[in-house]
């Protein structure tokens, strides 16, 4: 990991076409601007982590999910096999 110290207004260049500009420093945080080609995806790590966790939770059915769905559809519960 490269660690740099930058002041507001200073930039970091990544490759030939990505520019990160330090916009402002406020207490414990900083504001940055990122200039990159449209094809480059830029995401906040904590948002990606939250979406991944939500998708995993939604994809995991609890033990009685099948019975609840059958009840909603008016189907007999059966023995779960």
What does this structure look like?
- The chain is α+β, with helices and mostly antiparallel strands and 81 residues long.
- The protein is 30% helix and 25% strand.
- The chain is built from two helices and three strands; from the N terminus they run βββαα.
- The chain has helices spanning 45-59, 65-73, and strands spanning 11-14, 18-26, 29-35.
- It has one domain (11-73).
- The mean pLDDT is 90.
- The chain is elongated, with a radius of gyration of 24 Å.
Rounded radius of gyration (Å): 24 Å
Compute the number of strand runs: 3
Order of helix and strand elements from N to C terminus: EEEHH
**Unreliably modeled segments:** none
Rounded to the nearest angstrom, the distance between the terminal CA atoms is: 52 Å
Sum up the structure in keywords:
2 helices; alpha+beta; 81 residues
Topology at a glance:
Blueprint: E1 11-14, E2 18-26, E3 29-35, H1 45-59, H2 65-73
Antiparallel strand pairs: 1-2, 2-3
